[in-house]
Amino acid sequence: MNKPRVVVEPPDSRGLRQVSTGGKPVGSAWSLQGLRKVLSRLGYPEDLDVEDRSSISWLGGDSGTWPDRTWRRRSTIALMMAGLLGSMALLVVVGIPDAIGALTFAGRVTGFLFAFAGVAQGVAALAALDYWGKRQLKLSGAVILLGAFIALATNGLLLFMWLQEREYTPYVLTYLPLWCWSLWALRLLVREKAWRGVPHPKQFAAGVTATTLLAAANLAYSALYQPTSAPVLFDLNVKFGTPQLDIERPIIHVPVTFRARNSGQIPAYITSDGYGIYGVSAKHSSDGSGLLEWRKMMDATSDGSKVGRYVKSPTRETISAARFYGPGNWLEPGEQYTQERVIQVPKSAKYDTLEADLTLTLMRKDRGRIDEEFASPHYSWHKSDRQFYCPPVECVDQIINRGRVLHNNNIINVTRQPRYVISYYGWTGSNAELQSYVLSYEPRDVLSFSEEMAEEDKRERKRYGVAEAKAMAAVPFAQLLRANEK
Fold first, then answer.
1. Which of 32, 163, 264, 453 has minimal Cβ neighbours within 10 Å of its Cβ?
2. pLDDT tens for each residue of 338-374
3. Whose CA is closest to 402, among 425, 430, 383?
């Protein structure tokens, strides 16, 4: 057999021994069995005497020097891949929804960066097989180091955001252990100087740092700055039209137009809405003593503007009331919704004025999304709807809407509990009552009110930019009568 002499190099730090012939590497082996496989590929007989110095030259040890700890090396590979793949799955789950459907461009960029970072960790998991294997790729160590750094930064960010509220979410059971894992992985990789083989290590580190800063800046912009920099602006308008006298009956038909327009740059949900049309009458006070009743008026209406010097004991009757656009609907910037109503008022009615008002409670759409369930009403008088049913003798009849609120940023969704929005439209017999709450918990009894709900709502309203808008209009009833007499 005329074959070149085989040289078995000394074991490296992991126990792997390189095999060469004629000064050229031809393979590597972890054990004597692995060496025989290399020799077999080179055409040497399977029963070759490895102690024959004329065939094999041993450097840094003999045929019994195989320091590889297989179980330890494979355990390291398994643990490294498990952490990288787990972090990859988490980042993809967090990033994809924002990358596809975030409401802002910055939010989509942040989602894309998270998803891309997840893909990079998937590549790093594959590189772990090579790095703790035969290291056929020079950059495998650097790729794993990058993956571990991404895991430390992203899971550290998620953990930091969770610590701000410390609300339980199942995701905390992933990014908390993954953050601890990333510390272990980085310590191991730094100890082994995994960056060796990178052509320009300083430029590599600068690129990683720049990418991290870009992701942090996009997150801060989309989650903090942008949702507070532009206000929600709505124009509400209520207008009485030209009345018409019924040709057959002594009734006046009065058109009323209600309009809401989003004049700002931020889309907004309607969480509660309603309009009312009222007939107002009062006794005449020729002696000017009407102002003496201001205390009585404040107790009755909480509105001092209703006090007048020459009127006493005003009364207000509801002519018509209903919801306007409906909870769960929203208006984009520049969009408007108009509703026209025609009410019938007896010509003989003893009203002094007709009044109409429109009230909307709004929630910024760039801070959260309300699910479709919120648009479905529940009626407190329906026995079939057990959770919302309340006997009329115990409760005021109410229309209830309830749904979940998802945060505007999926990064926040995995570090916070879901929020709930609940809206009430109740009828007291004289006017409609509108209420809406945003809560960090799902109320068990949706028909009971408490100070806890009020305090919780106050805090969450600031978080989601909840605000109320109202418009009113009034017309003298005598003017309507004269318009029909001409």
1. 163
2. 999 999 999 888 898 999 999 999 999 888 889 999 9
3. 425
